[in-house]
């Protein structure tokens, strides 16, 4: 029973600390992406050509990749901070950001491949790979390079 109480406390603490950061971040990224998409649509409908798309499309893709990874990093920082109380956010980012970003992109790629194969296996892989960032941040064998995050999830 104490396990559930511990995770309930951790969830509520994480929600209380991060909600005021995540909500404005979500609104900001959605606003910027909507503006980019409207500019892309204008470029596509224009008779002048599509010369500006080479910058707008990658920027939109980058923003849509950044928001989930940045949100995940913010949420994972709270439980990590409880285990490492003397460390700062900068230390957390230095040790975990690259791994979380790399493994998240790998897991999204595998989910995309499974989803293209069939819908149900794709949904199964989404659930299977949803724990990859937790393995990257909290599993000591991953940090030592002994296991692969996708295989361990």
Q: If you had to describe this structure to a student in words, what would you say it looks like?
A:
There is one protein chain. The chain is mainly α and 153 residues long. Helix content is 85%, strand content 0%. It has 7 helices and no strands. It is globular and about 65 Å long. The chain starts with a helix and ends with a helix.
Keywords:
single chain, 153 residues, mainly alpha, 7 helices, globular
Quick summary:
The chain has 153 residues and is mainly alpha-helical.
> Could you say which structural class the secondary elements and strand pairing correspond to?
mainly alpha
**Number of helical stretches of at least 4 residues:** 7
- Main sheet summary: none
Amino-to-carboxy terminus distance: 25 Å
Note poorly predicted spans. none
Based on CA inertia axes, which overall geometry fits? globular
Task: Give helix % range.
Answer: over 70%
SSE run: HHHHHHH
How many beta-strand segments? Answer: 0
What is the CA-based Rg, rounded? Answer: 19 Å
**Average of the residue pLDDT scores:** 80
Write the layout of secondary structure elements.
Elements: H1 2-45, H2 53-83, H3 89-117, H4 119-129, H5 132-138, H6 140-143, H7 149-152
Helix pairs in contact: 1-2, 2-3, 3-4, 3-5
């Amino acid at each position: 029973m104490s396990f559930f109480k511990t995770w309930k406390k951790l969830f509520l603490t994480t929600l209380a600390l991060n909600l005021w950061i995540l909500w404005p971040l979500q609104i900001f990224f959605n606003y910027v992406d909507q503006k980019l998409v409207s500019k892309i649509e204008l470029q596509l409908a224009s008779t002048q050509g599509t010369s500006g798309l080479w910058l707008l499309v990658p920027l939109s893709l980058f923003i849509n990749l950044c928001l989930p990874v940045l949100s995940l990093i913010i949420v994972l920082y709270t439980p990590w901070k409880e285990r490492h109380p003397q460390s700062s956010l900068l230390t957390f980012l230095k040790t975990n950001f690259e791994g979380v970003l790399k493994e998240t992109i790998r897991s999204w790629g595998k989910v995309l491949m499974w989803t293209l194969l069939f819908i149900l296996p794709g949904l199964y892989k989404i659930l299977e790979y949803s724990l990859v960032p937790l393995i990257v941040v909290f599993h000591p064998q991953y940090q030592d390079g002994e296991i692969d995050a996708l295989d361990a999830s």
